[in-house]
Amino acid sequence: MKNIIITGATGFIGRALVQSLRNSTNGRVIAMGSETVDLVNRAALFDWFEKLHWAFECDQIIHLAALYKAGDWPVHHPATQFHVNMSMNVNILEAWARFFPKAKFTSILSYCMYPSHGEPHPETELWGTEPEDYLFSYAMTKKALLIGQRAYREEYGLDCTSVVLPTVYGPGDSFAENSHVMGALIGKFVRAAHTEVVEVWGDGSQEREFLYVEDVVDGIIAAADNSKVDVLNLGTGQAYSIKAITEIIRQASGFTGKIQHNTTKFVGVKKRLLDVSRVRKELGWQAATSIEQGINNTVKWYQTH
Description:
InterPro entries: Epimerase_deHydtase, NAD(P)-bd_dom_sf. This is NAD-dependent epimerase/dehydratase domain-containing protein. The longest helix has 22 residues, at 78-99. Helix 2 (42-55) packs parallel to helix 4 (78-99). 43% of the residues are buried. The two termini are 34 Å apart. The chain has two domains: 4-167 and 210-233, Rossmann fold; 170-209 and 237-272 and 288-303, UDP-galactose 4-epimerase, domain 1 (Alpha-Beta Complex). The protein is an alpha/beta fold. The protein has helices at residues 12-24, 42-55, 73-76, 78-99, 136-156, 181-191, 213-226, 242-253, 277-283, 291-303; strands at residues 4-7, 29-32, 60-63, 104-110, 160-165, 167-169, 197-201, 207-212, 232-233, 239-241, 258-262. A six-stranded parallel sheet has the order 2-1-3-4-5-9, with helices on both faces.
């Protein structure tokens, strides 16, 4: 029986993780969303943790909470991202050490932390490199979180690990036009199934790695339970062009109209993917869902919700 606290529990990944853990564990799963307590407010967070401390023993803390939005939003709000994310991370680390030092801490990171090039990124590349400039503030707060975990581990002997995620998609995602590329594309094609044109941002040549949300949840749980290393890339190790993804979505949604590429829109880096050899070696883990199956599942879900 395990008792688990999850921050960011009302987000896309958080909701799926909470549901999975509540279905599979006999312990308590405490879902922390922004309406539960403001992680930026140190006094409020410590008060919440202190009350919880007297109520039960915590075995794991899984930290997903972060302020981030897709598209060019990070370009225009670097200070907001820096303040909010640094505050949340510093506060949750200190709350962990003060109130639940026996709990294992698992943080969720992003592959935007890596530099911009087209080769698979190994975990060792997190250090001595800089991320893409437009994501610099957000990415560096994630690196600072890793440094914070190391500091608390070394000074207090606490147990922690981290997982780095690629672009996550699946049922329950945001399908708004300004969402990340997979959610935005699925939303566009499903909504336009009987119209003549769908606009795709960019020329379709940019490449990304995608991970289905059920595989994300499975990997996070595996790392939280079994990882003995500081950080693991969690992914498929396979990048797909937006053109290829668009074709799979087109077939899954039944769209028969014209695809129009808008090359004036912001599309980010040219290519990004992860080296997943460490997670396979350390945990024997690999993603179970093919890109075709994941997209089909997601399209069907969105069509019925």
